[in-house]
Write the structure tokens for this entry.
Amino acid sequence: MKKVLILFFAVLSGVASVSGQTTGIITGKVVDKQTGEELIGANVRVADTQIGASSDIDGNYRIAGVPAGPVSLKISYVSYRTQTITGVKVVPGQVTRQDVLLELEEVQTEEVLVEATVVRNSDGILLLDRKKSATIMDAISAEQIKKSTDSNAGDAMKRVTGVTVVGGKFVYVRGLGERYSNTTLNGASVPSPEPEKKVVPFDIFPSSLIQNMTTSKSFTPDQSGDFAGGSVQISTVEFPDQETFSYSIGSGYNSNTLGKSVPTATTSGSLDFLGYDDGTRALPSDYKSRLTTLYTGPDKAADFSRSLKSGYGISNQTVAPNQSYSMTYGNQFDLGVPVGVIAAVTYSNSGNYTEEDQFFPSAESLPTYELDGRSGNNSVLWGTILNGSVKLSNYNKLSFKNLFNTSSDAETRVEEGILSRSGGGYIRATREKFVSRSLLSSQVAGEHHLASLLNTRAEWKATYSRAMRSEPDTRESVYQQEQNGQFAFANNYGSSNGRFFSDMADNDVNLKLDLSTPFTQWDGFDATLKYGGVVKHRTRDFDGVRIQYGLTNTSSDSRFLNPADLLTPDQIGSGLVSLSNATADTDGYEATENHAAGYAMVDMPVYPGLRMITGFRYEQNTIDLSVYNPLTNASGFVLPTRSSGDMLGAFHLVYTPVDNVNYRFAVSRTLARPEFRELAPASYYDYKSAQIGNPLLKDVAITNYDLRWEWFVKPGDIVAVSLFYKDFTNPIEQAYIDRSGTTVTVPVNANTAYNMGMEIELRSDLDVLHSSLSEFKFISNVTLVKSESGFNKNQNLQYYFGNQFEEISPAAITNLKRPMLGQSPYVINTMLVWDREEWGSNVSLAYNRFGERISTFGIVFGSLRVDDIYEMPRDQVDLAYSQKFFEKYSFKMNVRNLLNDETIFRFGKSGDVHRSYRTGMSVSAGISYSL
């Protein structure tokens, strides 16, 4: 198949060419130099010609048919000084970008003459946006992502100042977990395909579909108020100024898989390569009625077992090379009105293998568990976008943005070792698991300049998003070693010898309106009143089904058969093996959230150089949730309607003593709400641990304080220092309790918490050190954080378990005061880039390190106090090299995780090792073509 794709792409390369042309295109944006505001209707003309255009609602202009060679642009706008830009180089058949900064007449009394400068990268554009932003923000551009080894948004986000990524997909901003962040896609909220988490996992977004990602670290009323660490805004790629076509093909490997035979499930489907199960692992359509009658006899159970197309079975296989493909097409058309379109698709398929050691102590002679594990994993990630825009006039624009992506993980795991639960002994456990996650987002948006309504700018968005997660037929088995050395089916592990099926759908309908009306404040300075609102309706449905196996004759020699030969329809029909329904009344839940918010804020100069942004936001939120048995619909729990109304506020000051320096101060009040899954008292078990929700959780109230100094040295270069402090009331933390030898995780409200720290950022061309280093760029950021959450030693914590309310004594919590979950005391990111444009060569070396962070809080087992579990620091070094050739082709090679540092989790900062493994070094290479 790969050869066919290569041939196909080569043919496309041959036919995708540009005919000879003698003219080019000039595009750009016209903005106010002082405020960064887009100027609508500015006249941009090629000097000494009749060729020109006016800027649209976004301040953008586009002039086609410009004669090749250096030209001058003349820009005029009412109340602004006319500006002439000389030396604008126009190349035949290509697009030249020239942005314009206009000054008010009060500032200049003569025509301004400047020399053209070329914006060479999107990093510079993002820094300009950041300079004029109302909020404290950081960002990463498509250009920086391309220079790294990052294949998805999760990889890329860890390069952002103050950000760490846990588990490769969950973003922690300023040491605060994913519950204290929110994510928007193209300006609208998106649901999560993760049943246990609030936010979207970032590994589901292929990096090639991303235009940029910005992280707002301070709240303004035009943002959703449910964050404290940061609000991450993902923007997908926009259509280009001229026709573009590109594709890439690549392959690679991971050092862990070389020469290894990897555990692999023998059951697979024909659509696994696309991240979907084709029905091979599915339950039969009439499973509800059949599962409720299994108890009537072995014949019924055997018939049901035969209806399951998949079965147990693990073999050792070699791993195929990793592969990746992508294709993008974009263009602008004149169909009476300007129309822009971009379409892209990307695909990757990779395999990995890990060997992991695990240990957990107990108060008895045997540890709770001490296991050696081997895991084979195959991951698929693909996505596609179709975005477009129609400019009805310079004052009205419509756009549509559509994204669909899918990721899947097929994991096969074999573990051996000591497990003291349910009698204890030396066990062998297996798991065959396939999880598919998908995200659909479809948006229609409009931008309008309402000249007759006080020159108000109106922006609206209507977005539908759907997140889906399917876990069809996770098969687990536990065998225990007997005195003869053989492993026998362990009859005392309940549903850990069984199968689990689950499906989840999360739907989000979002309507948003933002209005901006300019006005003049008391000293005649231009200011803006911004106001609007959002309405959101979100629903989630989750169904889980469990079946379990047992032996009716535990002395039969058949107990030594492996799961593929023992847990079969024939053995069930004979009466040797039982098959029973283990689905509980808490294995399904449905939830609805209705959210409405309105806001008003002003953005205005107080006096020259001092800008104030302040306002309020009111949010009304209602959650209804019920837990039930997915087979019988029997009610397990109904959460009383949670309804809240919250007034949130923000106050910002931006002092700009000179044009390229900002001093920022911000104070705000925000909140964090429990996620559906945290409120649902449903439980999930494996043979080592369990998780449950807690309907008694309260909302978290947060007060945020921020200071930042930023110096925009030159386009693309910056030095910044930030300080922050956050105070939490009722922070949500995880408590761990012992239930009959099983560790159970339950979310609870602590009393208070705080989070404080410093961020330092530097981006600079190294020619500041010596002119011979002009091709080098240095990018670095360091974050220092301290946090503490605390429990009241005199107050029990309440939770819901087994259809009743129970309490946790503070004595069962190892440390009543501790750092917040996932918070690292320091994070270091550094990247060195060498770029020789005339050769088409680029090399980047990236380094990342984080400090120790709590991954799991401690637990008390009788007389044994188990300390908090810390993920220990490790170093990651990535190397990327790209080389252009034949003008339109590029070769790129990535080496990821060069050091292959061991991932280690310890009890306390220096205690025994809880878990350890290595993810391996990944090497990939590929060819790309760009028109």
